[in-house]
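Sequence decides. Consider this:

===
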Amino acid sequence: MGVTTWDYFVSFRGSRLSIVVLKGVGGIGGLDRIGEMNEEECEECGIGGDILEEIMSHVPLVDLASANTVSSSWRSAVAASLLRLNTPKPWLIIHSQSTRSPSAVATIAYDPRSNIWMELQRPSSSIHTNNNSNGHYFSLLRSSHSSLLYMLSPSKFAFSMDPLHLNWQHVPPPIAWRPDPVVAAVGNHIMVAGSGGCSGIPDDSTPPLEIYDTTTGTWEWCDSMPTELMESAAATWLTVAADPHKMCVYVSVKRSGVTYWFDPRRKTWGGPYKVRGGNDDDDDEVFFSAIGCGGKGKGMIVVGLRGEAEEVRRVVMWKLVGIMDEEEEACGEAEGESGYMPSICLNVMGDFVFLNNPLEGREVIMCELKQLGECRWGSLTVTAAALDDHHYHSHFTKLVLSCSNVTLPHLERAFNPPSTPLLKITYPNCNG
C-alpha cells in the first residue's frame, strides 16, 4: 500500500526521521502516531525503496541536507525524490533592512516546493568577501533582475549573485556617481547606467554607461543608453532583465514599454522592440509594465497593470518567445480591483513569477507557469515573526525582494563549510 493514502507531515532532525500521521487507519510502516526513527528503525518498519523516496519528497529541502548524510540508501532516496517526485523550486527571498541602521537586516524565504516560510540568519562574520573588507552592510540593499543584490555608495560598491547571497564581491565604485542607477549583471560583466544627477563627469556630457569586468577587475566606459531610455534614465522609471543564455541585458521603460537590449561583450545596443502584448483597443490600457527572464528557453516575461494607478482592474502577463521577432504568447491575467498601485515589483526565476505592490509588502502574488500556457495563480501572505521582530511595520524599514534557484548542494555548502556554518535556517511562527 502506498504512503500517499495518508495525510502526514515529516521532518528531519539530526539523524532521526519524524513522522506525524494526520489521518487514516494504520499508517506508514504500521505507525499511526508521532514517531522518530533512525535508519535501522525505518528498515525494521519496512520503510525503504519507493516508500522512503515518497517520504523524502515531503521533507523540506532544508532538512534534506541532513538526511543526505545518513547513509547511501538515504542519499539515493533523497536524490530520487528530488529528481522524480518533488523537484526543487525557486525561493522567494525577502530582506527587511532598517534605513537608519543598514547593518540591521532580517531575511526570510519562501520555498514553493515545501510550502513553508523560513528565517535565514547569517552571522556577520560569515559573509564572505573577496578581500579583507568588513562583511557588514554599508548602505541600503538594492535588487535587480531577481538574482542580483548590490550596495552602492560614492566610495564603495558590492554585489552578490550566489543563490543564498553569502558571497559578496567588494570592488571600486563606478567612476560616475548615480543616485538611482540601472544595474544589471550578465556573465562576467556588471552594467551600471543612468543619469539623474551624475557626478564625476562634465555637466554638458551625456552620462556614459559603465561596465565592470569581474575577470580583470576594471571599469570601462561605453556609449550611453539610447535616447528613449536616457529620457527616463533611472531605476525608478526603467525595468531590466538579464538573459544569461543569450548573454544580454534588456532595458525597458516602465510607462511606455519601449525596450532595448545591450550586449556587454560587443558593447552594442539593439532595438527598440515592442514587449507589450494584447489588443491595443482594450478599454483598460496598460499604464505600467515590468520585464523578467526565467532562464533558458523560458523567454521574456512581461507583466502589465491595466486601468489606472488609483484603480488597477487587471494584472496581465505575456511571454515573449523571441523578443527580436516580437513573438508573443498570452500567459494569463488576474482580475479584481485594487487600491492605489502605481507600480509593481516583479521577480522571475524558472517557471515561477512573484509579484507584489511595493506600497503593500504583506501580500505577494505567485504564478507558476505550466505547460500549454496554463498559469497557476496563488497568494502568499507574509506573516513571518522574523520580520515583525525587526520592526517590519516601521516607516524606517525597506523591503528588498529577490528570487533564487536554491539547490541541495547550496545548502550543504552553507551548513557544512570547513569552519563555522555560514547560515542558520529556522521556521518562524508563520507556517500554521
Residues 1-8, 21-35, 324-330 have pLDDT under 50 and may be disordered. Residues 198 and 204 are 11 Å apart (CA to CA). DSSP finds seven helices and 29 strands in the chain.
